[in-house]
Amino acid sequence: MPPPPSGPGATPPFAAPPTEGRSLRLWLGLGAGALVAVLCCGGGGAALVGLVVSGTQAVNEQAQVVVGDYLRAVKDKEYDDAYRLLCDSDQQRESPSEFTDRLSAEPDIASYDVGEATVSTDISVPVTVTYSGGNQQAQRITLAQDRGTGQFEVCGVS
Question: Under CATH, to which class is 60-157 assigned?
Fold first, then answer.
């Protein structure tokens, strides 16, 4: 059986908790916790912004490559290669021979300048085409993503 507790005036077996500086330590701890939270959330926000920016740049680069490949094929009269870059709906609307006949009747492309892609409900790329006669025409090439391959395809030239 344990001994009975000491009576009045006895020294306690432990020291009383300190009270001086307690509120200062509390506020320093809360401030450090808030700083850590801000750094973590700020780092996550910065990472999200970086992800969006790099994703947009990747889409722009891929779109410009596809448009450049399409126009190069048309310029070089490699109509089969250009036809393969069309989206399924455009290929269903026009056979390869109809596509070739239509493009061979148009003026020859001397050069082209591919602009920056814009992404909204669809992806479109502005292009300035210079024809062999010297005439220039501003066009907008609309792209769609192939559901099977994930690659961009030309889905309209206006």
Answer: alpha beta
